[in-house]
Structure formats: structure tokens, C-alpha cells
Amino acid sequence: MRQEVLEKFYEQDVMPALAQALENLETDFQKTKQDMKQEFIDCFRKICVTAERSRTISSSKTGFLSFHVLRTRILNHNYSYPAMSYDKEWYLNNGIMTGELDVSYYYNHYESLWKQLTRESRKYIQQFCEPDIETIMLKLFEPFHEYVVELMRFSLLEALETEEYEALKKESRFEIQSGEYFEPGDLIHIEQIEKNRYEILNTIIQTNDQSCCFQDYRNLDLATLTSEGKDFRYTDFRNCNLQDINFTNSLLMGTKFKNSFMRHANLMVSMIHDARFDHADLTDANLQYCVAFTGKNQANAWKSTGFTGVSFKNSCLNQANFTGATILGGDFEGADLTGAVFDKAVLNRSRFQKKQLNQCFFSPQQLEQIEIIP
After folding, report:
1. Which domains are present in the chain?
2. pTM of the shown model
3. Residue ranges of the chain with pLDDT lower than 50?
């Protein structure tokens, strides 16, 4: 009988309430992501200062910077993640506490869900007690944690360029991650000081799995590289020579191309959700039929959090071809659009400056779709 009641509770109360809570969270996340980014960066800078000071005292370097989820804290309604600095041995040596990341804003909806389910459970007289609800809530925190991970990834590029982070002495391989203690966690960032260009090229060309995700390929000369249909999610190509590359039909979600030389690059039919092309030179690049979403919709139902938007801020898009592309909520502020082609492109909620409207042609329909800023 109790199992039947539990299944009924999940079906009629828990799952609908969870869906509504996550829908509300997604709305708040999109509305406040810029403000929350700045809060994360401010906290991140302090954590880096503390980590560097502590590691200097112990004559060691940081190999892992982890933001931990603690179930004991969640049970006590404490929604902050301790930030721990580990050396290259990771969990084999004790970590150093370097600060706290307050994520209570994103868990407000989790807390409301908890209160709602507690109230709803009273309908089932003498069937539930407080530990039952606690057990259920511990099973439901993961999708709320994923919004914290999304905030970190959204804030990452600016965080990596702070003086405090650059001053942090790191091991030859360095990782930022978030998750539970003694678990691999969600990967946020990887840095690899020593790189073998030929090994990297071989990996890119020969593999068809996820070996190229989250990789550090900064400052490499990869000009003329052809690698179609590759998975480069969250990989770092900043300051690379990517002239004449062919990444057709690739997954470039969250990929970082800032300051890269990408003239004549072919990214046709690629998924560029949340990619960063800030200050990149994309002269005569082919972005035909590329797709970049913002937020959530049926087409990206597989992703638990909404996308935050592709950025072409301050990039050079001279003669770049966006024919047939779908760019929803993209940021083109400061980009040079001279001669860029947006024929049949869908640009809903994408941001353009008023002066850019004279640099290339936009159809009347596109002018209604875009957001024009000063």
C-alpha cells in the first residue's frame, strides 16, 4: 500500500511541481544571468586570491579548483558550495578551503518546491513523515545544481581573464569542476600548459568520440585543418590560427574562439549554441545554416538548462555568410558586419547596434525580429 501511495504522490504531486519549479527557474535564470555572472566573477576572484595565498604558504600549486555540493548542507537548507583547492594529486591529498559560493538564488525555487511538497504530503494522512520528504528532495536537487554549472560556464571567459585568476599558480594540468565530494563532478574548464600540436592534430583527425570536448587548444596553429562532424563542446580555441579550417556540421556548443584568426573558416551547418567568437576575425567565414538557440524550446528539450546565447561581440564579420542560419538571441554588439550576408537567416531577439544596420542588408522581417541597441 505504501509503495502505491508513493507512486501516486510522485505522479500527481512531485513531477508536476518539479516541472513548474524548473520552468520558473529557467525564466529567472535568463532574466538575471548578467547580474549573477558578475556576482560569480566577484566571488571567483576572491577564491583565486585565497587559493594562491594558501598554496604559496604550503609551497604547492593548484591542480583542481572544485565547487562542492554537500548533501548535508542541502538537508539543512544551506545553499552554498565550498570552494576547495587541490594539488595535482586531487583527493589523495587534503584540499584547502578557499571560500564559499552562495548559490541560494538558484535554490530558492528548490526551497519553494520543498515547502510545496511538504504541504501536499499532508493529504496522504499518516503516509509520509519528514525524512520521506527529505529523501525525495535529495533525489531532486540535480537539475537545480545544473543551473549553477550553467552559470559557471556562462561566466567562465570573463572569470579566466581576471588578474586574480592569471596570478594563480597552476599545475601543468588544471581543472575547474563542480560536484559532490570524491566524485568527478561537472567539468567547467581545463588548462594544459604543455601541448603537443601533432598529438592534438592526430586526436582531432582520428577520433570520433568525445575526446575533443573540454580540451585546451589555445594558441595553436591549426590553419587548414579539416575535421567535419566533430564534437568540440566547451573546447578552448582562444588565440588560435584557424584560417581556412573546415568544421562543417560540428557541435560547437560553448566552444571558445575569442581572439582567433578564422578567415575563410567553414562552420556550415554547425551547432554554435553558446559559442564565443568575441574579437575573432571571421572575414569571409561560412556560417550558412548554423544554429544557435537561447533559452529552452522543444528543439533542445534534451538539455536541462536553457542556452545563454552565442556571442560575436567585437568580431570581424566582413563578408561572413549567415545564409539560412538560425541565430536566436545572439549578441553582435560591436561586430564589423561590412558586407555580411544574412539572406533568409532567422535572427529573433539577436542584438545589433543601430549603426550596424548600414553595414549589410537586413530584410524588413529581420528588422522586426532583431533587438536594436544604441
Report:
1. 2-170 (no CATH), 208-374 (2.160.20)
2. 0.94
3. 1
